[in-house]
Amino acid sequence: MIEGKLFQQSLETTDLEEAEKKQTKIMRPFMAADRVDAHAIMEARLRDAITERDTAEEAAHPPLAVADAWNAYLAATNRPDSSEAMLYRNGSLWKRFIKWLSADHPNKALMRDIDNDTASGYAQRLTADGLTASTFNQSIGFLRLVWRCLAEQIRGNGNPWLIIAKKRPQRLAHRHKTVTAEQFDNILKAAGNADLHDLLFVLGWTGQRLVDGVMLRWDCIDFKRRVITLNPVKTARTGKAVFIPLLPALAELLQKRRDMVAGEFVFPDLVKDHARDRSSLVKRIQKAFKQSGLTTNEHRPGVKRAITSYGAHSLRHFFATQALSAGIPGEIVKRITGHSSDAMLEGYEHVDAAMIGGLAAKLSNGKPLTALPAAKEQMIEAGKVRALAKKLNAKTWGKVKKELLSIT
Q1: Which of 91, 135, 196, 280 is the most exposed place for a label (fewest CB within 10 A)?
Q2: Does residue 121 fall inside a structural domain?
Q3: 55 vs 62: CA distance, rounded Å
Q4: How far is Cα 97 from Cα 389, in angstroms, rounded to an integer?
Q5: Both 131 and 209 in a single domain?
């Protein structure tokens, strides 16, 4: 009994002699004359007891291990309801982080072992690897999300990724280039495979993303009404559909495939390839672009890593460019491609010289348009007219008229 509080401790034996020895050992500190010493001993024992309790709890319910974090994230009920494509991308970001962690910090087995210094080290590595600002922000943003969703299981001292600042995006750092009609034909010839050829043709004349072209189903195609109805994977959560005109050449190609391909998908073999390893399909497409004479990767000012300049997404640009140059209103093009803002569409308004020439021919009814004079040239001609006007009289009118007609 200490200051009215009763403390009990089992001697854990039924042998009287052993019990007396244990009792003497336990009670010896409390027989001291100095009450302060007795309290200090009790406090130390209480701290030890708390430590033992916490150790036992961790043994029964250990904090989240790095190796288990991805499955824990997938099972978390508070994570965003991401699309399949987004989960694939996030899985790639997680694998990149784990690969770095295993090489640079193999001793950090628990999620709570990853502190601010570790987060800073990884951010520096991403920067050194030359990632674009967009990819850098995606990587850090996803890790921030993982720690937020799994905070209770991690049982750490906060979210270490909150100290990493976002990088300012470089607007032109990752924009794909469009292709001309001639380049598009060359890409189709270089496909070397009927499935790949037809997929590229579909992408070029529907303006859809690669995954939506690959996963195209026959029940989405209305040959009678000449329309394709899709729910793009990227916006699947919104349930928003896009309606794509079925152009004659595209309808003819798809009808031929319909007579030869069984099942629900237009490209059943590509669906399997995409599910097994989507990067392999991307490489095949890149190969077709290269064989058509296009350089698929390039270095741009302010960007350390080589970026993809031509790829499947270039065909999305191709469709939007062709549609805009043909006079289809931007609002209609947005509905076909699934864009929600004019700002997104601005990136596709690439019109090459051949298209400008074609539009000029239409505006002039097939006759080539002459170039308009520059402002400086207009000023020079006006000066000549004024000078001739001063010379005009009854004797010189014929000569002045001739010179005026030569100017105009």
Answers
A1: 280
A2: yes
A3: 9
A4: 80
A5: no
Instruction: Give the CA dihedral 172, 176, 182, 186, nearest 10 degrees.
Output: 140
Neighbours of 201 (CB within 10 A): 20
In a domain, 4, yes or no: no
Model's pTM, two decimal places? 0.51
What type of residue sits at position 7?
Answer: F
**Contact indicator for 248, 341 with CB cutoff of 8 Å:** no
- Range among 243-247, 360-364, 377-381 rated most confident: 243-247
Q: Residue 54 is encoded by which pair of tokens?
A: 């916490």
Rounded-to-integer distance, Cα 136 and Cα 363, Å: 47
Q: State residue 285 phi and psi, 5-degree precision.
A: -65, -45
Torsion-angle region of residue 398: left (phi > 0), alpha (psi -120 to 50) or beta? alpha
Is residue 238 domain-shared with residue 316, that is, in the same domain?
yes
How far is residue 300's CA from residue 308's CA, in Å, rounded to a whole number?
A: 10
Query: Tokens standing for 383?
Result: 């000066």
CA distance 89 to 253: 32
Residues 300 and 382 in one domain: no
Q: Which pLDDT tens digit goes with each residue over 207-221?
A: 888 889 999 999 999
Using CB atoms within 10 Å of the CB of residue 272, give its burial: 0 to 12 exposed, 13 to 18 middle, 19+ buried: exposed
Between CA 210 and CA 204 the distance in angstroms is 10
DSSP label of 243: E
The tokens for 211 are 């995954």
77, amino acid identity: T
343: tokens are 């700002």
Please give the single-letter amino acid code of residue 283.
K
The Cα–Cα gap between 73 and 67 comes to: 11
Domain boundary among the residues 60, 84, 115 is at 60
> Do 70 and 56 share a structural domain?
no
Backbone phi, psi, residue 30, to 5°:
-85, -5
One domain, residues 48 and 93: no
Q: Is residue 273 part of a domain?
A: yes
Those residues with Cβ within 8 angstroms of residue 84's Cβ, 6 or more apart along the chain or in another chain: 233
The Cα–Cα gap between 28 and 388 comes to 127
The count of domains in the chain is 4
Give the domain range for residue 402: 375-407
In a domain, 2, yes or no: no
